[in-house]
Amino acid sequence: MAFPGAERFLPDSHDLGDLVEAARTCRGCDLYKAADQTVFGAGSPGSTIMFVGEQPGDQEDRAGKPFVGPAGRVFDRALDAAEIDRELTYVTNAVKHFKFTRAAGQKRRIHDKPSRTEVVACRPWLLAELDAVAPRIVVCLGATAAQALLGSTFRLTRHRGERFDLAADGDVGPDYAVDVLATVHPSSLLRGPSDKRDRAFDEFVADLRMVRELLQS
Length: 217
Hints:
Oligomer: single chain
Strand order of the largest sheet: 2-1-5-7-6
């Protein structure tokens, strides 16, 4: 199914405040119909690192803020371990509305992965955030985020931790000259086998330390 896309809802200005206000009424795809609200990015222009996840979850949808649920708490813990101050980063998602399903007769909302069409429809917001924030490094958390910027053929299992030039290697055109690295989404650490979670967390922290070292190089 094709969607009109977010392009026509973008304001002329790419000031973050203007983008946040405009995104509240985005109808670029059908996900707004069931979600509570648009969940835009959080952070400041000039942040050196921009983290991009897949989409808001249940708690993010209710709060209107990214990465405040269980995965967000894992993310904060990993940032602390890697000695990266979240206050100096910009955090967002490839898709700005929560996509979910419900089991028959249940109220609980269950995460449902956004389709490629929904990711592409929402991408103008992500590119506008790149313009507004102008980070030195973009860190894609999970395959969906990486494919939103680096193309649908990107495979996290093959390219995790590799450094890409978004202008040369990306799927968004030549106007975004910024380094991109991809790692796992912190939610994957919660879903993995309990006896392997400590190792998975340490590997995630190692990826984040690589980002910090790249900034210092």
